[in-house]
Write a structure and sequence with these properties.
Layout lengths: L1 H13 L13 E6 L8 E7 L2 E8 L2 E3 L7 E8 L2 E8 L2 E6 L4 E4 L2 E9 L1 H13 L10 H4 L2
């Protein structure tokens, strides 16, 4: 409940409208998870029609949710920080628009790199073929290549 109240306050006080070029619809992120307890090493984020959905790898299979499953996102500027917030099944997510750090309930979850939707899907399928979807390695930068 505490996180929900923080999220609402951030939206109320930090939101200042955004220009056309700041809209994230059509963008895709290829991410490597840094959460030590996570079962997934790689995942993707797709932004479309004011919503975001998470692509994930489950048992050697790429899971792409239907568009109806997506969660609405908000672009927020808090002081000098520009973030994207959305509420998912596992909690409140944020993505810093500058350094592309993905947080889940305020804790580091993954680092992301922008790609097109097509390349994101290809990279995730490539990781499945290479059977490289377990724990993250020492270098996140290497994992995002």
């Amino acid at each position: 409940m505490k996180y929900v109240l923080i999220f609402i306050l951030l939206l109320a006080f930090g939101s200042s409208g955004y220009t056309e070029d700041e809209v994230w619809d059509g963008k895709a992120m290829f991410c490597a998870c840094i959460e030590t307890g996570s079962e997934e090493k790689y995942y993707g984020l797709l932004f479309y029609s004011g919503k975001v959905k998470k692509l994930s790898i489950h048992k050697d299979t790429l899971h792409i949710p239907d568009d109806a499953v997506g969660n609405s996102y908000s672009l927020v500027k808090v002081l000098s920080s520009k973030k994207i917030f959305w509420r998912g099944l596992s909690g409140i997510n944020s993505l810093d628009r500058r350094n592309l750090l993905h947080l889940l309930d305020g804790k580091e979850y993954g680092w992301c790199r922008p790609y097109t939707q097509k390349i994101l899907t290809e990279k995730l399928l490539e990781k499945i073929q290479e059977k490289r979807f377990g724990k993250v390695s020492r270098s996140i930068a290497d994992d995002l290549q």
